[in-house]
Amino acid sequence: MTKNILISGASIAGPALAYWLREHGYDVTVVERAPAPRPGGYKIDVRGKAMEVLRRMGLVDEVRRHHTDMRGGAFLDGKGRTIVEMDADTVGFRDPTDVEVLRGDLARILLAATQGVEYVYGDSITAITEDDHGVAVTFERSLPRRFDLVIGADGLHSTVRALAFGPEERFLRSLGHHIAIFSVPNMLDLDRWETIQAEKGRTLNVYSTRQDSQAKAAFMFTSPAQQYGRRDTARQQQILAEVFAEHGWIAPNLLAAMPDAPDFYFDGMSVVEMEHWSTGRVALVGDAAYSPSPASGQGTSLALVGAYVLAGELAAAKGDHMAAFVAYEERMRHFVTVNQAQSKNIKRMVAGSGLMLRLNALMMRLMPYMPGAAKIMDKVLAEIREVSNAIDLPDYESRPGSRTEAVRNGS
Question: Is residue 151 part of a domain?
């Protein structure tokens, strides 16, 4: 009987999976490269069936208490003048039932819900060796250990995926864009407001979820293959500074603040496409298995739903991990496919030509006066609503006395 499971990664998918495995009676260990839980972070959306997963965890009210409470946003022209203002749900293409939170807040809530789970911070898996009885795992710092299963929930550049499936180049489909996000002084004095300014091939978004000394600056840009080390922050910042050197508006001030940012993030925007998400006693969940890219806005929802389904199928298979992994893939595949297709939004987020840039600006200016604008928005929202709910979630049986059973019984 499979009882002892190692998860790599403690962001969203990892703690969510740990929660559900624990609810089904498994012993769980989570290993995380970062030295401690990471606070703050950028804002993320939870939609559709992912909200249902949070409801079954009894966490919806807690997550909603940490809603970003954004008031809205403005699209600006090249000189920083307002073209149009919109409410927050319109800017984010959200239903009222969806929720927007900071990544760090959601991660902290999930972490607090995983009582009884062992977390090992500041460490990483270096080797995985399978035999008929389990998996021998070695670590960078800890002593070797044995587990029944190993699950990679360690993101786009998954270590587990590389060890068990091969180089990431086999699975990452680049969207031809990069993204960078980091904290900056709130030089625009924003209060739950975001400002979006675009030029050909690049878009800049500055927002603050509350009126304080900090804001977030998000840069997206069209990019050919760039040669840089994934942890070479100096080279990444050089690339960003070169691309946005002539961007205008507030870009020079943001770039000047970049070297002092404690949370600089930079990466290519890619979709992870794999024929299978498991091999032997190793499986993947979340971005490690099926990242839809930040352009989709669906990565967090896929992670939460995938964690729920993987844990549930393992419990339903009663120790037959091979059958569980097959059922997990069969149940999740369509949901993953339609949500990954939302990566097409990158064409809306970053104008690929001067003509597209001008057309987008014209549409923005005319939107308040267009009688069909509401119908256009409804059509976009309907598609997002459809893909966010494109899976049936079984009501997996939990162990007696579990938190899930209490939530189900309303106690």
Answer: yes
Q: Which two tokens stand for residue 132?
A: 């008929």
> Helices marked H in 244-372 — which ranges?
251-257, 287-290, 299-316, 321-340, 346-349, 354-366
Domain membership flag for residue 379: no
3-state secondary structure of 328: helix
Count of domains observed in the chain = 1
Instruction: Decide: residue 192, CB within 10 A, 0-12 exposed, 13-18 middle, 19+ buried.
Output: middle
Question: What pairs with residue 73 in β-bridges?
Answer: 86, 194
Q: Is residue 312 part of a domain?
A: yes
User: Which pLDDT score, from 0 to 100, does residue 376 have?
Assistant: 64
Give the strand order in the sheet containing 149-152: 118-121, 27-32, 4-8, 149-152, 282-284, 278-279
401 has pLDDT over 80: no
Output DSSP code: residue 295.
Answer: G
pTM: 0.93
| Strand bridging mode 193-199 / 72-76 | parallel
Domain of residue 38 covers 4-68+99-172+271-346+394-408
Average pLDDT of the residues in 207-235? 85
94-139 residue pLDDT tens: 888 899 999 999 999 999 999 889 999 999 999 999 988 899 999 9
How far apart are alpha carbons 332 and 145 in whole angstroms? 30
Task: Indicate whether 221 pLDDT > 60.
Answer: yes
Residues 14, 311: Cα–Cα separation, whole Å:
11
